Amino acid sequence: MKRAGTLRLLSDLNNFSGAARLRELLAGDPAVRVRCSPDGRHLLLLRPPGAPDPQLLVAVRGPGAELERAWPAGQPSPLDAFFLPWPARPALVLVWESGLAEVWGAGVGPGWRLLQSTELCPGGGARVVAVAAPRGRLVWCEERQAGAEGREGPPAVAFSHCVCLRTLEPSGEAGTNLGRTHILLHNCPPFGLLTSRKDLFLVPTATTWPGVGHILLIWSPSKGKVVVAAPCLGLSHSKSLNPGGGDPWDFSTLLRGLPGLLSPRQPLTVHTWAPTPQGLLWLDFRGTVSLVQPHGGTRAVGTLQEAPASLAGSAALGTFHGTLACVLGSTLELLDMGSGQLLERKVLSTDRVHLLEPPAPGMENEEELETRGGLRLLSAVGLFRVGWEAPQGLELPSAEDLVFEEACEYYQRRSLRGARLTPEELRHNSTFRAPQALASILQGHVSPSTLLTTLRAELRDYRGLEQLKAQLVAGDDEEAGWTELAEHEVARLLRTELMGDQLAQLNTVFQALPTAAWGAILRALQLQPDGNGRLRSQAPPDVWKKVLGVTTCGKEPPSGILPLFELLCRCLCRLEPRWLPPFVELAQQQGGPGWGSGGPGLPLYRRALEVLGEEGTRPEALELDLLLGSGRPKAVLQAVGQLVQKEEWERALEAGLALSPSSPLLRSEIFKLLLAEFARHRRLDAHLPLLCRLCPPDLAPAELLLLLRTHLPDELEPPAPFPEPGAEPPLTVGLLRALLEQTGTKGRPSGPVLSRYEDILWDPGTPPPTPPRGPMSALQASDHPGLEAWAPSGQGLCVTDTG
């Protein structure tokens, strides 16, 4: 039974805001530019410069306010406008020839509002000639002043353009985030910009230099490459390109490195360009429709019954279900994409017709899900769907039935048993959970495109894993293959709950291929050194929660099976022991309540110490680093005690100084411990400045002297003025003075003396007068009455007259 093409009315435009104005613009202006939002609810109409008001209209289907903008005579109107594929709210960007760009949004308040305004060409002297808005980016072709890059003459004018881009993403509820400007291509001719869901097409225009008018470029951002194609020559070349990495291409340099592209050819004579998911369609003036595929290859699709009469005539191209739809004037032709055969030709009631892009995957509403697979046609009469009508009496199997039938064939090929699997067995047997899960998803009326988007990463990993297994079976590059397989397996296990068999399997992988397994952990946790001997991580909290968590439900793992944190610590001990303390310190910062660091179980540093072995058998350096980095008072005091026993005074002092001011008690305990050693022997004298820095600011001189007196060694004999040869020198006032000054305040106290030792710290700076050394006359003595104070106690000055 032959299928028939149908035009189904979706809306008479009455359910759009501003329906009257919408019909007026669609019926009255053949040059109006029409775009549809990714969700299919908004229509944007932009009239050319000089058209009557309004030049811009945004209509919305259902609840919502329309947007009308008009620019008075003498003030330029936008060069182009695009909807942005933001799922949270509708948004559009307007771009002027001067480089001004405005981002408007709806849903953040009543009506539409301006979110951001920026200049794409801040230096001035540039003119935007074309613009496009692929997913997450804003790309434009700008004309710069001739000779700005050191070139003169007519070719400099023809190649004075450059193609630039900026990232454009939503930020918060009512903000936008515009990235830095990157140059994709410079010293190039003027290009028109067209975008599909994956690729950006740079096509020649009427003003392109004739010698390169037969060349077009295809940029694939996801692949990081640009394809240079000459459809009339049947040539295409691919080059890697990464504008974010700072490597823009010079157009002339690019072409000189590609042989054959500059052969003398006539420029492309194109009436209409149209990007599609299959590539770029173009209609020439002979009525031939060709397809430029993303890899650069070109093929003819078919020829229309009538060719466009002139460039002024309207034409629109689109594809659906392997069918090419072309609206030329008031005629709709449907051609088979494979054979080019004309399938159907319809005459429409108007020549003001626009083909709309289908909604983005995952953004369709229920009505559009029912009408999937067709094109939408917009005119002043209404919004229609162009599609094929299924033959009567044809019953298609449900998606659920197809899942179980395909699963039967798949499991049967991999099964070793002779019995035949049936769809009913798969439905009721709990062994086969994958088809049951997929069928349950499909029962929730999830669109295939949404399901494909959700499962794309898993399908890509599965395909790569199957290819890797085949490579290992064939024996090709076994070492690299096993490494990649281990990385895949660790990444897969990290997405599970890590209970029982999954944890045991992860332990096995780490035992067999520790280097590859640790590489997968590095990527999962996004670990990077910061240059100061520490680690930083950008992994989400859910990943760290899985790493730090202990065994679930309070059950201990089987003998020999380590939880993930202990497993990583053991792996680090084998591969890079010096990174174990920074890793444990980072884990302590990431941990939350009940994750293994703040819960009722052992702290993380204790769990790491248990991996090192029993006390006394652990590597001393690692044990000290773990204790010092734990931040726990008992652990830090234990580490400082070990350093004191090893007489590593400087490291012990630095451990105390490294503590934050929020730990005054711990710093005070470390100071008292080291002060006791300072009182007993002189091996700390060289580090006295560090000891002074560690001294608590609230310690009084009296308290300091009492602490010292407690730890001074007992003197069995009266002190001698000088120590015996070879004996330990005693503590002197000169050494003690620095500590006493540290305990005093910054200025001399104005109140009463609080300690009987404080007068030691404050001297007047001027010594008292020198006592007399010879006999004086009575007259001299009376001139200096203050000298009587220097007489010995109980004696007077004996004055004799020698005259």
TrEMBL record:
Gene Ontology biological process terms, A to Z: blood coagulation; lysosome localization; protein localization to membrane
UniProt-listed InterPro entries: BLOC-2_complex_Hps6_subunit, HPS6_C, HPS6_N
Residues annotated as domain BLOC-2 complex member HPS6 N-terminal: 1-386
Compartments it resides in: Microsome membrane
Domain named BLOC-2 complex member HPS6 C-terminal: residues: 401-773
Primary location recorded for the protein, binned into one broad class: membrane
Pfam families, per database record: HPS6, HPS6_C
Residue ranges, compositional bias (Pro residues): 765-774
Top-level taxon of origin: Eukaryota
Keyword vocabulary terms for this entry: Cytoplasm, Endoplasmic reticulum, Endosome, Membrane, Microsome
Residue ranges, annotated region (Disordered): 744-803
GO cellular-component term (any): lysosomal membrane
Transmembrane segments: none
Entry annotated with the keyword Nucleotidyltransferase: no
Quaternary structure (record): Component of the biogenesis of lysosome-related organelles complex-2 (or BLOC2) composed of HPS3, HPS5 and HPS6. Interacts with HPS5 and HPS3. Interacts with biogenesis of lysosome-related organelles complex-1 (BLOC1). Interacts with AP-3 complex.
Task of the protein: May regulate the synthesis and function of lysosomes and of highly specialized organelles, such as melanosomes and platelet dense granules.
Protein name, per record: Hermansky-Pudlak syndrome 6 protein homolog
Annotated organism of origin: Balaenoptera acutorostrata (Common minke whale)
Gene coding for it: HPS6
